[in-house]
Design a protein that fits this description.
Helix content: 40-55%
Number of helices: 11
CATH topology of the largest domain: Rossmann fold
Largest sheet: 8 strands, mixed
CATH architecture of the largest domain: 3-Layer(aba) Sandwich
Number of strands: 8
């Protein structure tokens, strides 16, 4: 039996694609086939999504003339998986493998395959992710529209030239981890000032979520919103002065630069 869309890799991101695509009503579970070698994970996916076809390996039987594929495996498995997909007849592929260029994926696949590379982040797991995408040398407008429709089911999508995707990998890819680190530190700071762990946790997480929602809903720049909270000579001003003195802003710049460079290294 052939499928319109094959998801190669049934981990957290692969499962998020199934959930997002079905939620957006672009595809049903009957349209999808997930390739996942782990027997335990196959059972999990079949339990989570009744009616979903989950197979241990991709075969010619799964691929028809218009079958597309999403590649979401580990980087060390990606080129072999892409080659298998090409040999089975896949001619359109969306890769969300960090750091792996379209050139390398195209080289692994027989024929002229339309390869779109994307970098999503983990909030795609709840349909609120941010993804950037770029097309390879054999991609046409309809291929980009196909990929954008898939990624759009999981959140915001932007199109960029591929040379910028390493920067995206350094910024929005690990950005949830950067922000979680800030949340951890602020919870600890509240405890140091005498709050209980639970009270500090509730305050920090609610403020974190609310500030993000306000930033998105208001249309204001972060600079304007920060200024609105910062009264001259007040408590916020004192705290920000300390953060700036400890080079927190510069640390974030360096963190994104380091992650971007690591992405470039992985792609070589």
């Amino acid at each position: 039996m052939t499928f319109p869309l094959v998801i190669i890799g049934g981990g957290r991101i692969g499962g998020a694609f199934v959930s997002g695509l079905v939620r957006a009503e672009h595809w049903t579970v009957k349209d999808l086939c997930v390739i996942e070698p782990s027997p335990e994970r196959r059972v999990e996916l079949e339990t989570l999504f009744p009616g979903l076809k989950v197979e241990a390996a991709l075969s010619l039987d799964h691929v028809g003339p218009t079958t597309g594929a999403i590649l979401c495996v580990k980087p060390e498995q990606a080129e072999a998986s892409a080659k298998t997909a090409g040999l089975c007849g896949v001619t359109r592929l969306l890769s969300v493998v960090a750091g792996l260029s379209t050139v390398r994926i195209e080289a692994a696949m027989p024929g002229e395959v339309a390869v779109v590379r994307a970098m999503p982040n983990t909030p795609v797991l709840i349909g609120q992710g941010a993804s950037a995408m770029a097309g390879g040398s054999h991609v046409h407008t309809e291929d980009l529209e196909w990929a954008e429709k898939i990624l759009g089911s999981l959140g915001v999508v932007v199109r960029l030239p591929e040379r910028h995707l390493d920067a995206v990998t350094g910024l929005s890819g690990p950005m949830p981890a950067y922000l979680y680190l800030v949340v951890e530190a602020l919870i600890e700071a509240g405890v140091h000032q005498g709050l209980t762990q639970e009270i500090s946790r509730q305050l920090v997480i609610a403020t974190f979520a609310g500030a993000g929602a306000l930033l998105q809903a208001s249309g204001e720049s972060p600079e304007v919103l920060r200024a609105q909270v910062t009264s001259p000579g007040g408590t916020t001003a004192a705290g920000i002065r300390m953060l700036e003195g400890r080079a927190v802003r510069a640390s974030f710049l360096e963190a994104v630069a380091a992650a971007t460079e690591r992405s470039r290294q992985l792609g070589r």
